[in-house]
Amino acid sequence: MGLLDSFEKGLERAVNSAFAKTFRSGIQPVEIASALRREADTNAAVVSRERIITPSEYLVRLSAEDDERMQALGHALIDELHTLLTSHARTQGYSFAGPLHITLQSDEHVATGTVRVSASAVQSGVTWQGVVEVDGRQHTLTSARTVIGRGGDADITIADAGSSRRHAEILWDGERALLRDLRSTNGTKVDGQKVSEAPLSTGTAFTIGRTQLVFRVVPASGSPAPGAHGLRGGVS
Questions:
Q1: Which InterPro entries would you find in this protein's record (predicted)?
Q2: CA angle, residues 134, 181, 196, in degrees to nearest 5
Q3: What is the distance of C-alpha 228 from the center of its chain?
Q4: Helix axis angle, 29-43 relative to 75-92, nearest 10°?
C-alpha cells in the first residue's frame, strides 16, 4: 500500500493509515491531496471536446508546525501526492500544462490544521503535439505525414518481423490524426480490428505486426524536466 490510498478507494481510508496515527493533530496528508485535486478541478480549462488542460505547478502553503511535520516525511510524501494527482488527472481526462511540480512551503498566515493550495494559471495559446508511444518511448510527429515500419527509411522504425518495411502512416495536421495502412502484408489493427484507415483520438492503441503503439496528443511545454517535484520552492 502507498503512503496514501488512491482517490478511487476513498480518501477517508488514508486518514486511518500510518500517517493519521503519526499526526494526531494538525493537517493530514490526505487533506493536502484533496486540496490539490480540488485546485486541479477548479482550474481545468476546456480547449476542445477532447482536450482539457489543468495547471502543472502547485504551491501548498502550510503553517510552520504542519510544514515541519510534512517536511520530515521527505520526498516520499511528494512522490505520493504526485502519483495521486496524476491518477486523478488521468481519470478526469486532463492534460497537465507541463511537467507536474508540487511544492510545500511554510506560511505564517496559514493556521495550523489548514492548507492553502494555489496553482499557476493555464496559459492561453497552448500548443499541442502528436506523439506515438512504442515500448514506453515517445516519438513526436514532426511532419504532416509519418511512416511507421521496420524499414530503415521509415520515420518511426519498429523491430518487428511481422511488420512491413513501410507498414502504415499517420497524417497529422496539428489538430486531427488519421491512421492509414500502406497495403501492408499483415494489416493494421485498431481495437483488434483490421482497418485500411481510421481516425485517431488521444489514447487510441493500434497494432502493427505484434507491436502495440499508442497515439496521444500532449501539450508542448518548455517547463522543467518531466517528473520534477520538490518539498520546498523558491516562491516567497
A1: Cell_Proc_Reg/RNA_Proc (IPR050923), FHA_dom (IPR000253), FhaA_N (IPR022128), FhaA_N_sf (IPR042287), SMAD_FHA_dom_sf (IPR008984)
A2: 125
A3: 12
A4: 40
Q: Which amino acid is at 4?
A: L
Torsions phi, psi for 67 (to 5 deg): -60, -40
Return the minimum-mean-pLDDT range out of 30-44, 58-72, 128-142, 217-231: 217-231
Looking up cell 511545454, which residue turns up? 221
d(CA 209, CA 187): 8
- Across all residues in the chain, what is the average pLDDT? 82
Provide DSSP, 111-167. Answer: PTT--EEEEPPPPSS--EEEEEEETTEEEE--SSEEEEESSTTSSEE---TTS-TT-
β 188-190/193-195 pair status: antiparallel
Retrieve residue 188's grid coordinates: 493494421
- Cα angle for residues 40, 136, 140 (degrees, 5° grid): 75
Q: Give just the sign of the alpha carbon dihedral 208, 210, 215, 221.
A: negative
Mean pLDDT along residues 175-189 = 94
Distance CA 106, CA 115 (A): 10
